[in-house]
Design a protein that fits this description.
It contains eleven helices and twelve strands. The protein is an alpha/beta fold and 369 residues long. The chain has two domains: 214 residues, Isopropylmalate Dehydrogenase (3-Layer(aba) Sandwich), CATH 3.40.718.10; 141 residues, Isopropylmalate Dehydrogenase, CATH 3.40.718.10. The longest helix is centred in the N-terminal third of the chain and has 19 residues. Bound molecules: 3-isopropylmalic acid (IPM) and manganese (II) ion.
Length: 369
Amino acid sequence: MSVLAKIAVIPGDGIGTEVVNQGVRVLECAGRLCGFTYTLKWFPFGAEHYLKTGEIFPVAAFDEIRTMDAILLGAIGDPRIETGLLERGVVGKLRWDLDLYVNLRPVVLYAPQLTPLKNKGPEDINFIIVRENTEDSYLGLGGFVKKGTPDEVAILESIYTRKGVERIIRYAYELCRKRNQKKKLTLCDKANAIPVHDLWRRVFREVGREYPDITQDMAYVDATAMWMVKNPEWFDVIVTTNMFGDILSDLGAMLQGGMGICASGNIHPGKVSMFEPIHGSAPKYAGKNSASPIAAILSVSMMLHYLSEKLGPPYAAGGDLVERSVAELFASGRIQDPSASSGINTDAIGDLVLEKMTAGRPASAGTPA
Ligand code: IPM
Ligand code: MN
């Protein structure tokens, strides 16, 4: 096979290493069964590396990663280090400096017992949040005046550019068409209190003229939070700002069984893109082999689907196989609980996924495409 995906792996902090190790085992198995190839290069960035060397993300490593196809990241964050320093210096840097403007966060219920919602099942909870990933309050434009005094002022600007808003909205319309499900796109904003969100509404309607097959829907963020719990079946694709997408995706995580299940893709179509669980480094579970690796494993599945667009169908077959295997483990009740208290170790969950992947293959599989 001549096609080789170049993948950077950044396990990061806390449970990051444990969950990424399982993700990499699953990747290896998918490659073998579906006939795709890849190279892995590991990067040590995160708290330990910073404490040892003072480096957050050296330029040479960043420039190398830029030339690769995808990045698999575990988690970044450590209580020993100033809040946000590494989060912004590693995760933020990848998102901003690689211009990964789409943050895709699927909300999918794999089995009825996983959701805390009454009377809602897998047919009701199946949507995707398209979070803008490069603008809004995250850019850090602002600062303090008279810091530490009773007269202190803290100012933060929310930035929305016409180009930034248009490209994410267009991506969401395209995705909605491609999903071909309810064909409904919900714009989530707060235009009733934040007048500049009118930019989002205007662009939403304008771009929407090119997508007459997609139903346009607009909802304020507070109401969206309420409806996600009350009527999750109303949603198909939600497009929203960076900050609202961050908050709503944790809510979405709980609808589908918890943080241990949720994967995400930080994407710039056609360019190197980054895949990571939406959970954090969970220091209290670090080193205990108890965290769920499912979010990291499903991040591998998302990464493979992304790679298939550029590198061909065997990667998509791998992505499907991984996701289907995880779905079956939940549906059959073999994994009841995707949290650190599931009673199944991190690596034992990895074993179960590998077993399912291997068992689920038809006899003819295993021949490289
Ligand atoms: C996420 C995380 C990050 C964010 C943090 C680690 C900066 O919460 O990916 O959702 O806020 O985007
Ligand atoms: Mn978050």
